[in-house]
Amino acid sequence: xxxxxxxxxxxxxxxxxxxxxxxxxxxxxAVVSVGRELDLAQVLRRIVEAAALLVDAEYGALGVIGADGxxxxxxxxxxxxxxxxxxxxxxxxxxxxxxxxxxxxxxxRLTDLGAHSSSYGFPPNHPPxxxxxxxxxxxxxxxxxxxxxxxKRGGLDFDTEDETVISTLSVAAxxxxxxxxxxxGAQRQQRWLKANAEITESLLSGSSxxxxxxxxxxxxxxxTGARIADVSIPVTGAEGLFVEFAAGAxxxxxxxLVVPFAGSLSGTAHRTGQPVTVVPASEDSIHAADVxxxxxxxxxxxxxxxxxxxxxxxxxxxxxxxxxxxxGENELEPLVAFAGQAAIALELAERRRDAEQIALLEERxxxxxxxxxxxxxxxxxxxxxxxxxxxxxxxxxxxxxxxRAVDDLDETIKIIRSTIFGLRTKDRESGPGLRARAARAVGxxxxxxxxxxxxxxxxxxxxxxxxxxxxxxxxxxGELLSNAARHAGASRVxxxxxxxxxxxxxxxxxxxxxxPAQGRRSGLRNLEDRAQGLGGSFTVDAPAEGGSRLVWxxxxxxxx
Length: 560
What we know:
The strands form four sheets. Strands 8-7-6-13-10-9 form a six-stranded antiparallel sheet, sandwiched between helices. A five-stranded antiparallel sheet has the order 2-1-5-4-3, sandwiched between helices. Strands 14-15-16-18-17 form a five-stranded mixed sheet. Helix 2 (about 40-55) packs antiparallel against helix 5 (about 160-205), helix 5 packs parallel to helix 9 and helix 9 runs antiparallel to helix 10 (about 395-425). The N and C termini lie far apart (about 115 Å). Strand 17 and strand 18 form a beta hairpin. The chain is about 50% helix and about 20% strand. The chain is α+β, with helices and mostly antiparallel strands. The protein has 14 helices and 18 strands. The model has no long low-confidence stretch (mean pLDDT about 80). It has helices at about 1-35, 40-55, 80-90, 95-105, 160-205, 210-225, 250-255, 265-270, 330-390, 395-425, 435-450, 460-465, 465-490, 520-535; strands at about 55-65, 70-80, 110, 130-140, 140-150, 230-235, 240-250, 260, 275-280, 295-305, 305-310, 310, 315-320, 455-460, 495-500, 505-510, 535-540, 550-555.
């Protein structure tokens, strides 16, 4: 009997050794499996799957601690179907028992999680759970997140060995996460460098400023995974930023907006010259006037594009969808560097535009000088010769023709002199162009309307529209915005200004109460008279969706 007892004990110990060997083997396989991945999302998924398998847990989860250090920004689960997760509702934010491991980053093992003082119970449709094992995951000296395991199969409790195994796995998981983050950072840095090179190449190849702005916004949106990306430029004389290019969701509604400096994310970044972040944008009370980030958006960041005199040359605004990760320090650093490179590109574009303008003016001066020194002198000499020859012509009809030719030469000389004067004065007149004047007027109207109108401008407004017609356009724009503020009662006003071939078109539409059939129309009659006086037209439409649409047109000479 003693021999049988010894043999049984030996068998138990052999089974224990075999079990330990198998568990160590499983742990090593899990460590190798976790360390094999370089994609962070895949690494996290493998960690929680391996943890649940090692301790034979029915349910497992991995919670990633957010930037505030008090809540969970991500929550990955195993053991629950997609239907079950959807029926439970929002994922845990890190309160109750889950928050206990966040606030006290030490292993926590419970035989009945419902009996713990921090337990709040389960939401509706949540499966019942009893046993619990929570272990923190550290990446270097930082607590990255926590492993949560519940309900060991067979109705058993988690023991010390389970805690040791998961603690060992958490160390390997921390190394794997660190490697994945380093790899992800290197890949991101490579994408930023590639984007910078693409912008520089586009600029040097002669791309226009709008094309460069579009490339800046699209590449930033692509690399950061943002839902929207806007590039806003300060408008001279206006207290706001003009959204020159918008990408992503609802881009047409944002492009052309005049964003006020005060109460907006972009305005704050422009004035301070520093990046500004909010989490989430839709709940940001500091920047209440920011119409760009409304509509259920999540984390957002506004980065200035260089600085000049304490203020930026523009602002790049990025916003992610609700529930997505915040813009962390590891993303802000390359983003700021990219914005600085983009600012250099914009500076080069402005300098090239100035150089082209100077070259154009110099060419005009040369043409004017040649016309004066060569053409006019030769025409004058020819006229003097014809006048002398006219005295020698005896035939009356021939003498009359010579006299008319001399008069035509005098008239031609006057025309050339007028052309010379036009060449030397064009583009040297002081004052802002029509584009800047329109942007300033729309920005100023935000105060009386109670909201910023949407502005869209197309065509060569500063070059094709003569100054006298531009003055009429500004008068019409002021009258239309004033009417919208006083009579329309609209919550949305859109202004479109286009320089089309042969005419300039100003359109102001709103979603207000429309134009009454009977009422004061003196202001509208003045607009019609102003347009007809220039040979244009003025029309008032009532769109099917409500509101009003007023279109003011005036002819122009393209390229004037």
